[in-house]
Write a structure and sequence with these properties.
The protein has 282 residues and is mainly alpha-helical. It is built from 14 helices and two strands.
Length: 282
């Protein structure tokens, strides 16, 4: 039975009407930091532009001919996803170091996006987890293997999560809940069709609209925009930490679970309070 989709939000109709063709600005990042954290990939990182955009990563993904290349796509997607966030290189290096089967899993996930669609690839990754890689950044990687004849693999991070809750009356988790991701994809595709645009553009408009207070992030200075990105990345990291804690082997005492969740909620409140001072809504 197909999932029921939500009506197109008025906010999204406004965004498509006023900013429907806006491209996503490329992300600035630090060559030096990333090359220091990933020394064995220095030659590849040197080839990336100082400001990395979606189009740049898409070109790398299109040229991906075998499983060896998926590591490069993954690194490029992480550089693009983290942008100026200072701990991005460190976290990416941990994923590369702590997953000896990373190339195989990334290759299989990419193949499933291309042949079965984004939700199928997400479901496979949910069962074949990559250590230290949560939903937000896993979907940033899957996104680049979307093909026209399959359901897309759209990014689902904290910014999109908050927008859906605030404007779309749609609650989806960031905890590898397959049904939530399927509902998100189906809903976004339906909205895109109704508005004669692409699902990827709908996802970008939701992402860029979060915390704009009807002005748009393009009206902010570069330092403010970078700060917002870092604050949202911290929220993504907290979601990843909660997800990793629940995945620890062995029985999980109820008191430990309650204490951990309480701590995560407190940390999220601190980050959101700081973000509110920069004009971000949660």
């Amino acid at each position: 039975m197909p999932l029921t989709t939500k009506p197109v939000p008025q906010r999204l109709e406004h965004l498509v009407a006023t900013r429907g063709h806006d491209p996503q600005p490329p992300a600035r990042w630090s060559h030096r930091s990333w090359q220091a954290a990933l020394p064995s990939h220095q030659d590849f990182l040197k080839q990336l532009p100082d400001r990395l955009g979606r189009d740049d990563v898409e070109k790398i993904a299109r040229s991906c001919s075998d499983d060896t290349d998926v590591i490069r796509v993954f690194i490029a997607a992480m550089v693009w996803g983290y942008g100026p966030v200072g701990y991005g290189p460190y976290r990416t290096a941990r994923v590369l170091a702590e997953n000896p089967d990373l190339q195989d899993k990334l290759g299989e996930a990419a193949t499933r996006v291309r042949t079965e669609g984004g939700p199928a690839a997400f479901a496979w990754l949910a069962k074949n987890r990559i250590k230290r890689l949560g939903v937000a950044f896993a979907t940033k990687y899957l996104f680049y293997f979307t093909t026209p004849n399959q359901q897309p693999a759209l990014v689902l991070d904290s910014r999109v999560h908050h927008w859906l809750r605030e404007y779309g009356a749609l609650r989806v988790g960031l905890d590898w809940h397959v049904a939530d991701y399927e509902r998100y994809i189906q809903t976004t595709v339906a909205w895109a069709q109704a508005l004669s645009t692409s699902p990827g553009q709908v996802e970008y408009l939701m992402f860029s609209d979060t915390g704009t207070n009807d002005r748009g992030n393009l009206d902010r200075g570069p330092d403010d925009a970078a700060t917002l990105m870092e604050e949202y990345a911290v929220l993504d990291a907290l979601d990843d930490a909660a997800d990793a804690f629940l995945a620890l082997p062995g029985p999980l005492p109820l008191d430990d679970s309650d204490d951990f969740e309480r701590g995560i909620r407190q940390l999220r409140r601190i980050v959101l309070a700081r973000a509110a001072r920069h004009g971000m809504t949660a």
